[in-house]
Design a protein that fits this description.
Blueprint lengths: L2 H21 L2 H9 L1 H8 L3 H28 L2 H19 L5 H14 L5 H12 L4 H30 L9 H29 L7 H6 L2 H12 L2 H19 L3 H9 L3 H11 L2 H17 L1 H21 L6 H24 L3 H4 L7 H12 L2 H15 L4 H33 L9
Helix pairs in contact: 1-7, 1-8, 1-9, 2-3, 3-9, 4-6, 4-7, 4-19, 4-20, 5-6, 5-9, 7-8, 7-19, 8-9, 8-14, 8-15, 8-17, 12-17, 12-19, 12-20, 12-21, 13-14, 15-16, 15-17, 16-17, 16-21, 20-21
Length: 437
Amino acid sequence: MGPAKASGNRVITMFSLVLAGEAIFGLPFAVARYFGPTFLTVFKFNDEELGWLFFSYGTIAMFAYLFGGPLADRFSARKLLSFALCATGVAGFEMVTIPDLWTMKVLFAVWGVTTILPFWAALIRATRQWGGAQDQGKAFGILDGGRGLMAAFLSTIAVLLFQVYYPDDPTTVTYADERGALRSVIYMYTFVCLGASAFVWFFVPESATPPEERAARGDGETLRRILGVLTMPSVWLQAIVIICAYCAFKGSDFYSRYAVAAYELTPVQAAWVTAVSTWIRPVAAIAAGLLADRFFGSSRVILWCFALLVFVFSSFAVTTPSASLATVGILWANVSISCVAIFALRGIYFALLEEMAIPQRMTGTAVGVVSFLGYTPDIFVSVVGGWLIGRWPDQLTGYQVIFWLLAGISAVGVLAAFAGRRITVAKNRTPIRSTTP
């Protein structure tokens, strides 16, 4: 195979991973994130009930992360990813019927399986293999940056579709208008997911893991691997980093609802606030990856990002919202800056696998264990946030408490990143990629 062809294959492989990594989460996350107020109206849910949907998802997903890791170490990424995308997309045809709360809880639980068990660790392992030993920041930065670019593109199309069905005059909007607008968005994400399944099947190569190695990984070996990974301090620190970063990411789900409740924006305007901010994601993730690889190391960039989030979430909490141009500008600034930090974190926190010297052969299991612990915010952030919003009559107090909590969690992330940096320096005996002469 010539260099040009090999390079082309690498590009197609990474594009396939990017497409898969974003398409699969559109139905369980993007619809409610970008169109939160309309989602609640159409499904006739309140904030706390929406939180329970994500509780259903997160509880199942937590265990799916753990068992999905060894699965990724044994089977073909191509088959696992394609199956996961197909199963997730098919479930979208149930969502578009606008079912009741109980059915939606079941649906989100199903997505907790399909989007994680056969998918997540396989995606991370394939990305780590793509990056090799020297380009982990680049690989994960491109993955999340590319996902961000894909998310921005898809969210823009979704908002435009939504706008077609949503009347220009908010005072004339009927339930039928809102239902039609939201269903168009659900259909779009459903067909994107199914299309991504077909694309992955044709363009992602089979796993490079030798058959004899996969055969050797029986149930006893799987348990030994999990227990071995659990004894690594670096794994626990990485889990704390991901918990704190993912709390911040889940906190961004409240932005569109906060914009409507506090700043008197229309649902369309609020959707644009969230959707436009996604264009920050590819720049932030790729830039973070390059900075981590070329200059500072992943743990140091992660520390800076958490410090920035402490500042931004505190600003959210102390700013008095109003419909004035100046305060709406502060809203846009806070959303944009927080998204820079959040998506930079998402772009490189799995690069810590290489920086902390976790063996390649343990990648899937390590990702499973780290994700089992690190993505627990899927269970509690939406429930706690919904409960806080409903606890005070004005709702704004609840949002302020949420932002103070997120600032505190980000401060814990600063400490975890600092400790991770110390482990990295100890493993390498000298600071990695030091900027000092």
